[in-house]
Amino acid sequence: MTKYFDFLLDEKNAKDIVGSIPFAEYLDIQIQQNINGEIIFFLPFAEKNIGNPAIRALHGGIMASFAECAASLMIIGTVAHDHLPKCVNQTTEYLSSSKAVDTFAKVKMNRVGRRVIHCATTCWQEEGKPVVISHARFLVGDAAEA
Amino acid sequence: MSDKSPSSPVFDPEQMKAMHKMFMENHPGFLEYQFEVVDIGAGKASMRLPYNEKFVGDKATGSIHGGIITLLMDTAGGLCSMAAIGKMTALATLDLRMDYLRPTTQGLDILAEVECYHLSNTASFVRGIAYEEGEQKAAVAHMAAAFMLNTKGPKLMKKPRFSDVDGGK
Known about the structure:
The complex is a heterodimer of chains A (146) and B (169). Chain A has 146 residues and is an alpha+beta fold. Chain A is built from five helices and eight strands, in the order αααββββαββββα. Chain A has a single domain (2-145), classed as Thiol Ester Dehydrase, Chain A (Roll). In chain B, strands 1-2-6-7-8-5 form a six-stranded antiparallel beta sheet. Chain B has a two-stranded antiparallel ribbon with strand order 3-4. The radius of gyration of chain B is 17 Å and the shape is globular. Chain B is built from four helices and eight strands; from the N terminus they run ααββββαββββα. Chain B is an alpha+beta fold. Chain B starts with 12 loop residues before the first helix and ends with a helix. The A-B interface holds A 20-24, 26-27, 47-55, 57, 59-62, 64-66, 68-69, 84, 86-94, 97 and B 26-29, 32-33, 53-59, 64-68, 70-75, 90, 92-100, 103, 151-154. β5 of chain A pairs antiparallel with β5 (91-100) of chain B, so a sheet runs across the interface.
């Protein structure tokens, strides 16, 4: 797995990977590494991401988008270098309201098959308390093109 | 449809107009993503996302990223829950499921049609379909979500307390 992580953590590769999805670029998602050497995704706070102006909470749709983009980027960076994975479906659980601060995400690929990849993405904010958990299924390889 | 679908008496056109205006003017999402409210009815809402190159998910085909459709559906779901209650209230998404039926076509706007199929005191259940507005109205995604009602936030809706009801005893 280290080999793949090196690929993802290379600054140029990371930029290319994020650049392959214009929407991820628009959200300004960045790829980072935590102290345990794991890949984490970073969504900097932006005013446009506010969904509830009254309590200044991030938009639920933005959190779901971030989780989906993070999972896609993780797949592109690790197993599908040459093509975009195709999201089949995604379920998002909102554990608590997301504050108007930076958000991080970690992707766990529960199963990596030849055609389908099951991903679980956990998003958290400043205190490390998870705010969103998302499960998504992606088609890769031949299945993504069909 | 459902036996407990929200009934029309709570539907107040004036409130709906105010809700429409509030959403169009104050919501950062509406300004940034150019969402348009097409229609608000009793327990129903439809919203449009104009095609924008910023939201592309696949450069090769120019199809919109699923995330922005989720964003549209979440917003439409919230609006539709408010329409079902008939009042503006603070709410929070509990859970949201998206099924991406097919990739969208380059250059076509997305129309979200969402309905609230069950409403309880504390939660609303919504479902909806996103269409692309080409020559044929083709479904591109399906959504099912649950919203928690009357969450933290400014008191948009006054809730009577027991002390108010029984004369402060």
